[in-house]
């Protein structure tokens, strides 16, 4: 005990030295670990740099400037393209209400049926051109305010698109309009909708409304319909075209002789003056799945 008291300062000094030495060793070990991490990161970046230097072309300042200019030029071309296609905007009235929409639908439906009859085009029974739901229920029976306005705007766009394509089919005198399906706007698919809720912009930067049109016609009629779609005021994108053929029997009055007033005695005796002949021919059954595309107006600063 006497020795401890005599050498207390030495003992305390030794303890302090040991503690400091342990701390220094710990810091040194930590620094060595960090150094190894830095060296590994440096080796990785050095390898990446060597790979870039060995690439063709090497990303020099000149190449980086060329890339920047190409990007600016591409952006200008895209804006020019969007400005060109924006002319195909489907314009709807600013103010809409369910009654106005239904009145417009009834008028167009009546006009389509009359035009189809005049052109000799056959339609299915009770054909509503894709809008059968709204002959029985108003468009905004379950929503009001902004939701109703949004629904009516989409429905009016769909009505205008169906009008454009239907007029094209009637003008080019297809034989039968078999079906029209449009995007659903209420979330509850019906028989003449595609089951797709419309009004959402695609990842390509444009708003697309898909439609399906089924009809039968001849080869020349189909060619004219496709030409009409490509030259339409609206921007139509044909996503798929399915064509099959079927054989149909046409009936035409029989001709007994060159002189239409002459009836052969044999035919007269058989009562065949009003008989008909049948001729087989092949016609096309077409299903077009297309989208009407609209590009949003560009905003400055984007």
What does this structure look like?
The chain is of the alpha+beta class and about 300 residues long. Among the domains are: about 55-90; about 90-250 and about 280-295, 2-Layer Sandwich (Alpha-Beta Plaits), CATH 3.30.70.60. Helix content is about 45%, strand content about 20%. It has 7 helices and 5 strands. The chain has helices spanning about 1-5, 10-55, 60-85, 100-120, 145-170, 220-230, 265-270, and strands spanning about 175-185, 195, 205-215, 235-255, 275-295. Strands 2-1-3-5-4 form a 5-stranded mixed beta sheet. The longest helix has about 45 residues, at about 10-55. The radius of gyration is 39 Å and the shape is elongated. The model is unreliable at about 255-275 (pLDDT under 50).
